[in-house]
Structures are given as C-alpha cells and as structure tokens.
Design brief:
Jelly Rolls; Arc Repressor Mutant, subunit A; six-stranded antiparallel sheet; 13 helices; Homeodomain-like_sf
Length: 312
C-alpha cells in the first residue's frame, strides 16, 4: 500500500468520542438526580433527568463542564448558557440563579464540577507566560471546551476506576486542567484574582470577609478600609466582578444561609432570620420572597416535597 493510500485509510478524528465516554462514565457513577461527590475530593458529578425550575444558589470557585444537556446561570441581568461546547468558570463566590434547560431520562443533563484551588492557580500563574494587565471582570465566564481540555477530563474520570492511583495522578491532571483554563482566552480573569495586590485579589479578600462575617453589621467604609481602597473604587470594582454591591452581596449570603438553616436544620423562619443578622422578621420575609420567589415557609415546604419526590 502506498503512503498516500495508507494516509487515506486512517479514520478521521472523532471529536464526539471523548464526550460520549465522559457521559457514559458520569452516568455510571451518578445514577440519580442531584450532586454526587466522587472519590476525587475536588470532583463532583451532577445529573438531572428533567429540566429544572430556576433555583437560587451560592456558587463556589469552580469549573462546571457540561458533557450532555445544557444549563444556564443568571448573574444579575446577565445569562450564561453552558453546554458540551462551553464550560463555566466561577472564579469567586457568587449568588447565582441556575436552571437546567435540556435534560431527558434518555439523555440526562450530565456535568462535572471541579473545585478551584487558589494555591494551585497561584503556582501556575508563576510558571505560565504572563497575561497583559486588565481591570477586574465578571467572576463568572464561559470558555470553549477544546480537545485538550476534554482529554484531561477524560483521564481524570478514568481514575475513578483505579482508586489506588488517585492520590498520585489526580493532582497532576487537575493541575493540567487549571493550566488549560489559565492559558485560554479568558485566563486573565483567574490570574487577576491571585496576583498580589491586584484589583481582583482585593475583591476576593472582601468577598471572603463578607462570607465569614455575613451576619454582622458591616459598612462599606469598613470593607474598603480592609483592602486599602476608597469606597467608590471598592463599589465599582466589586460590582464589576459580582454584578452586586458589597451590601447586596452580603444580603444574598444571609438569605441563602437562612434557607439552609430552615431546610437542613429545621429552624423556623424567625429563628433563621435572627441567626443570619436580621432584626426585622417582616423585612426578612420580603427580601426572601424577592430572591426565592415565595415566602420562607411556603418555599421550604415546596423544597422538601421536591426532595421527597426525588427520593421516592
């Protein structure tokens, strides 16, 4: 056979093959609706057999890679749709409205969620080529899922079949995945969050402060002083990253924590409101309804009914 004939006989690259294998592996480990923690600490698997209603949640720094179906995340007035062609990067803690758009029992929504390690990102920034300086951008963005990223994700999931190798190999593959994000089109958004004294890092520090003291009566002046910024500069940069003002962000965290206390710990609305820093039960109820779409008691009852339905 001539070299030309041999070349023509080689099967073309099947770009869908990695996605098909990823989907099969996720479906094998995630057999029911919801989040499933894997044997790899940083890796979670998510499955939904049907589209979902919009649901408010606090997203932690992570990568969300859809391999089947699609989902949208709404941050303020912006909507981000991610599917097998695009993955979502959450670079800071953010209150988001999420909704699975495409899912059926035959073709369920399947997603990988990888927690981002700031220390690893800092190390990679020192090794990778420097990115041009830019101002703070949204802490939520979409990037195209390229073949090298799919290849690394597939190697990560294959490790679930060889648990004895996870401790040694998983950190290496996770490092490669973060490197792919950092060297991609929007990698500067992650870089800015770990560069010492960068605008993004300062906003990240304010977010962490609000997270640890969300029940306290924080002032914008106190937050600005904590990162040596003016009030106007903090307000502008914080809203650029999160689409919210610092105090709106704090309010959202309070309401999400109150919801968790009612749903998981069984607290009554008034007790949960007091626990997260509200002095007025009526104000808590109004703001809760505005965020979650129903008064506290009604919304929690509906959530528990949904959980029981899925369990059955």
């Amino acid at each position: 056979m001539s070299q030309a004939a041999a070349a023509n006989s080689i099967a073309p690259f099947d770009s869908l093959a990695p996605q098909r294998e990823l989907a099969a592996r996720i479906a094998r480990f995630a057999t029911g609706d919801g989040f499933h923690q894997s044997a790899i600490d940083a890796l979670g698997l998510i499955r939904h057999d049907h589209p979902t209603e919009p649901c408010a949640a606090v997203y932690q720094p992570s990568l969300c890679i859809v391999v089947q179906g699609s989902k949208q995340a709404r941050l303020g007035d912006e909507v981000f749709v991610y599917d097998p062609l695009h993955y979502l990067v959450v670079s800071v803690t953010l209150p988001v409205i999420g909704q699975v758009r495409e899912a059926t029992p035959a073709q369920p929504y399947l997603c990988l969620r990888i927690a981002l390690d700031p220390r690893m990102i800092s190390e990679l920034v020192l090794q990778a080529a420097p990115a041009p300086p830019r101002g703070p951008d949204r802490g939520l963005f979409l990037a195209r899922t390229e073949p090298p990223m799919l290849d690394a994700l597939l190697r990560l999931l294959r490790l679930l079949d060889t648990p004895e190798e996870i401790g040694v190999l998983a950190p290496l593959v996770l490092r490669e995945i973060c490197y792919r994000v950092l060297t991609g089109e929007w990698g500067h958004r992650l870089r800015d969050l770990v560069v010492t004294d960068g605008g993004g890092q300062r906003i990240g520090r304010v977010i962490e402060l609000i997270k640890t003291r969300f029940a306290d009566a924080l002032s914008i002046e106190e937050l600005a002083d904590s990162v040596h910024m003016s009030v106007s500069a903090l307000h502008h940069r914080f809203k650029s990253v999160t689409a919210l003002s610092p105090l709106q962000f704090q309010k959202s965290l309070r309401l999400h924590e109150a919801r968790r206390l009612m749903l998981n710990d069984g607290l009554e609305a008034a007790a949960a409101a007091h626990r997260v820093g509200y002095e007025s039960a009526s104000q808590f109820s109004r703001e809760y309804r505005r965020l979650f779409g129903a008064p506290p008691r009604r919304e929690i009852v509906a959530l528990r009914t949904q959980v029981r339905a899925v369990a059955d």
